[in-house]
Amino acid sequence: MDLPEEFVTPDGVVRWARLGAGPPVVLLHGTPFSSYVWQAIATNLAADHEVYVWDMLGYGRSEMRPGQDVSLSAQGRIFADLLAEWGLVRPHVVAHDFGGAVSLRAHLLHGAEYAALALFDPVALAPWGSPFFKLVQEQSAVFERLPGNLHAALVREYVSSASSPGLAPEVLEELVRPWTGEAGQPAFYRQIAQNDQRFTDEIEHRYGDIAIPVTVCWGADDEWIPPVRGEQLANAIPGAALHLIPGAGHLVQVDAPGPVLDLVRKFLP
Q1: Which of 57, 161, 182, 188 is the most exposed place for a label (fewest CB within 10 A)?
Q2: How far apart are the first and last CA of the chain?
């Protein structure tokens, strides 16, 4: 899936794409991923929807450079600005993992309006952050200096753990590739170092004020964020319902694209 378009921010260029025609729907990825995780879903939806995908700043094909602000705070502002750039008024939004926090921050703090919001295994409730995540936050400068082959092996193992049935080799390599090399390796640790729970603490108390339709979906075998978090989130948002997806881990749209597509299509106009 090509991302031919560019959106310039003070911290670098964000790459994005628009596919198909029809009612607009925007797809947000999480970490340490990219819009690639939505490829199968986006291609199918483009048959009858105008689908927007983008790589967050410092992720995937978007610009990676030293000194960038790639925090959840920055991504929330960028997403609100992107919606304005695209001229979208109340699109349907589908968000995964950190993308869930980004979409919630854009809505609650920056006035982004959605027709409805679907959250897949989102980072939204405290506490969060695995022991590995916290270790990297504390020692990011050390990890940046790992030999390239050891770094790639670490990222490969980390990404693999997001899947329940296991990732096809070509999918795994596509997810790992952006985080390797001179720009990618420090970018991987940069985005972990800059993100912490305070960015969801700032909005968690406002989930009860959300007045748009919200659907919460979760991989039943998610070992990164357990499904009980989905129950808690659905209970915190008025009218939200939880849907569990059997046989899927945290990377739910890759593990179970058919069931995910069915849920997304039921959510869309």
Answers
A1: 182
A2: 24
